[in-house]
Write a structure and sequence with these properties.
356 residues, 14 helices
């Protein structure tokens, strides 16, 4: 049997789908299980996963439909028996991709924008549920392919090489993280659609660090991120005078995850790195409420402190649903909403977390 898990919507969503991969392996121990992802970072997270036989990766947004066609034809030629579209792939394009690949049995969630004619694309669906985590939404696909939940727990899974663990341990030793409190920080977010507007303002992060670094002795701050955050990190370095703000030179997300195991706390909005920190069980996780946060994408399996957004204030689904659309609101409205989370509120949450 050949099974394809389609998990193209985001890097964090791919990490959230790893418990489903484990369930698929438990149900079908001799099957070939492959994964189709869009982002290179998602493929990176799946490297070494013992439940995955092959990862297909193609940036369809960058390459466009025409240049992606030979790739999709190659995937189609594999002749998959089953394909599953993992939560949160609400756009019809994801279901059309499943139809083009043409597995004999194709299953997905039914979203707000799913229409009756899409039965031609996906044969069986289960309604998505915004009241439960995406991990649970994914498990609800299993009965549609004749499988069931077999595992007693569902943790997000990452497999490290000895070199990646060694790199993180060496970094921690060189910077004496064992004898200090370590705060991981991610200032970015996804960049598709208008998701950059869910970021807490960089000015606020800078003000926070200016307040924390002189008042919290023994604190080291690690700035996590990739090339997209380089400019923001450079500005932080230029405006906050502290030798205890470090930018790890991690080469991939697995190295970043290995290093997160040495953190005492982690601060971000809902991003792929938030999910990575949750997977690494970073204690004292702190999440700034953004319009895109809801129970489906809370840090799974990890306790966290939520810093409420006075504007959003729990009305997240009024702003954002998994229908392929952007966050609702003008740029000015969304920028103001994120700016409404005060530096003082975040600082209080961080200080309380660091004291635990």
């Amino acid at each position: 049997m050949k099974i394809l898990l389609i998990a193209m919507s985001g890097i964090g969503d791919t990490l959230i789908a790893t418990p489903l991969l484990h369930e698929l392996r438990a149900n079908f121990p001799t099957a070939r299980i492959d994964v189709l992802v869009m982002w290179a970072g998602a493929k990176d997270l799946l490297e070494g996963n013992p439940h995955v036989d092959h990862v297909w990766q193609k940036n369809f947004i960058k390459d466009g439909a025409l240049r992606s066609l030979p790739f999709l034809l190659e995937v189609r030629r594999e002749g998959y028996d089953i394909s599953l579209n993992a939560h949160t792939q609400g756009r019809v394009a994801y279901r059309a991709t499943a139809r083009f690949i043409g597995a004999k049995r194709r299953v997905s969630h039914a979203y707000d924008n799913t229409r009756s004619w899409e039965r031609m694309l996906i044969q069986r669906t289960v309604p998505e549920d915004y009241s439960v985590h995406s991990v649970e939404n994914n498990n609800r696909l299993l009965p549609l392919i004749g499988a069931r939940v077999m595992l007693p727990a569902h943790e997000m899974e990452l497999t490290f090489t000895p070199a990646e663990v060694g790199w993180a341990a060496d970094f921690a030793t060189r910077h004496q993280l064992a004898s200090r409190r370590c705060l991981g920080l991610h200032v970015g977010s996804g960049g598709t659609k208008n998701l950059a507007l869910k970021r807490w303002p960089l000015d606020h992060y800078i003000a926070l660090l200016k307040q924390l670094t002189p008042t919290q002795p023994g604190l080291t701050v690690l700035l996590f991120g990739g090339p997209e955050e380089q400019q923001a990190h450079a500005r932080i370095r230029a405006e906050v005078s502290s030798p205890d703000i470090l930018i790890p030179d991690s080469k991939n997300l697995r190295q970043a995850g290995a290093l997160m195991k040495h953190c005492h706390a982690f601060l971000s909005v809902d991003t792929a790195l938030m999910h990575l920190a949750a997977a690494m069980k970073v204690p004292n996780q702190i999440v700034i409420e953004a319009p895109t946060l809801n129970p489906t994408n809370y840090p799974h399996g990890n306790r966290f402190t939520l810093v409420r957004n006075p504007v959003v204030n729990g009305r997240n689904l009024d702003y954002y649903r998994y229908d392929g659309g952007p966050i609702k609101g003008t740029d000015e409205e969304l920028t103001a909403a994120m700016a409404s989370v005060s530096v003082e509120a975040v600082a209080q949450a961080v200080v309380e977390s660091l004291s635990r």
